[in-house]
Amino acid sequence: MDDLTTLRLEKANEDELLKILGEFIARHSQTFTFKLLSENDRRRKLWYALIEKLKTPSLSKCQSVCLEALRILSRDKVGLDQLLNNEILSVLIRLAGLVADDEEAVSINNKQNAYKVMLEAQKCLCNLIYNSTTAQRLCCNNGCLEGIVVRLKTYKDPDLPHEIKYFDMRMLFLLTALCADIRPKLQNDLHGFTYLIEVLDLILKSSAERNSNSSKVSSSKRRANSSRLGQWEHSGPLLDDSEVDLACEVLKILFNLTIHDHIGQGSLDEEEEAHFMRLVSILHDILKIGRAHV
User: Fold this and answer.
1) How many other CB atoms are there within 10 angstroms of residue 168's CB atom?
2) What integer pLDDT is reported at residue 233 of this predicted model?
3) Which one of 73, 81, 118, 249 counts the least CB within 10 Å of its CB?
4) Angstrom distance (rounded) from CA 14 to CA 65
5) 3-state secondary structure string, 29-96?
6) Residue 26 has what pLDDT?
7) Nearest to 115 by CA among 69, 64, 158
8) CB 71 within 8 A of CB 92
9) Would you state the pLDDT for residue 256?
10) Which tens digits make up the pLDDT trace of 14-51?
């Protein structure tokens, strides 16, 4: 994006903004580096122009396309550490629906028309956390972690899309993998271990209920099909692909939380032992479960 286009972007109204960014997104959907943005301070000007548009209430209809452009730009790690600050990340965290208040989180989840904006903001944050040590450091202290845990408590809501849950867990995995200092806070202060195990439990229960209610194929037919295909027959509950993806992200986070603290240390306290016993039980159930091919 050249200087003239950036200037047009800064002064654009809603229709002009949609046109400029639509062309940018179509042209750069598979671009991962932007060498021209390293000239004439273009990168900073472009990022700041887009953030200003996201902060403008009258341009709320353009939020999704602005975030999509930022998501593409955030693939390029060049200059991100110098560019990013609390203001930029706070805007993205707010648009991702990550708030530290339980009631406000429920209210945001009920605004289904905001899910597309939330998802694009989550994807931006994932890219930034992965590519920038500045983003990692700031997201450990700006409410991002607390916001994820608060929304974690709402995962029973059937209207909350799988993609929102998945990218929450993706962010949490990146933070716990790249910022070891936050692991005790997540596990102890925010009770993250308990909530993450509850997510796994919810996945297993939902799968069992769904398969129990929707099973229409007789056991004899299943055996015949399995025999013909040379496959092992699984008569228990099955996880669909989205459940598998979510469970994998949760398990990766639990690995990060458990691996750092107990190697070479003494015995567990009573609460920790109960957590680990519950985790072992769930892992046993997961290892026995099948996967639905859809």
Assistant:
1) 27
2) 47
3) 81
4) 11
5) CCCCCCHHHHCCCHHHHHHHHHHHHHCCHHHHHHHHHHHHHHHHHCCCCCCHHHHCCHHHHHHHHHHC
6) 96
7) 64
8) no
9) 94
10) 999 999 999 999 999 999 999 999 998 999 999 999 99
What ranges in the chain are assigned the alpha helix state H? 3-11, 14-27, 42-54, 63-73, 80-83, 86-95, 102-109, 115-131, 133-139, 144-152, 162-178, 183-184, 192-214, 219-229, 241-262, 270-288
Identify residue 184 by its one-letter amino acid code.
P
The count of other CB atoms within 10 Å of the CB of residue 260 is: 13
Residue 178's φ and ψ, nearest 5 degrees, are: -95, -15
Q: Token digits for 119?
A: 């998802």
Torsion of CA 269, 270, 275, 279, to 10 degrees: 90
Looking up tokens 């605004």 gives: 111
Dist CA 239 CA 160 (whole Å):
18
Cβ atoms within 10 Å, residue 241 = 12
Token look-up 């867990």 returns 169
- Dist CA 240 CA 209 (whole Å): 13
Burial of 70 (0-12, 13-18, 19+ CB in 10 A): buried
Three-state DSSP class for residue 239: strand
The contacts of residue 90 (CB under 8 Å, 6+ apart) are 142
Amino acid identity of 194?
Answer: T
Instruction: Give the residue among 167, 180, 86 at the shortest CA–CA distance from 120.
Output: 167
Which pLDDT score is estimated for 232? 40
Low-confidence stretches of the chain (pLDDT beneath 70): 3, 103, 106-107, 109-113, 213-237, 260-267, 290-294
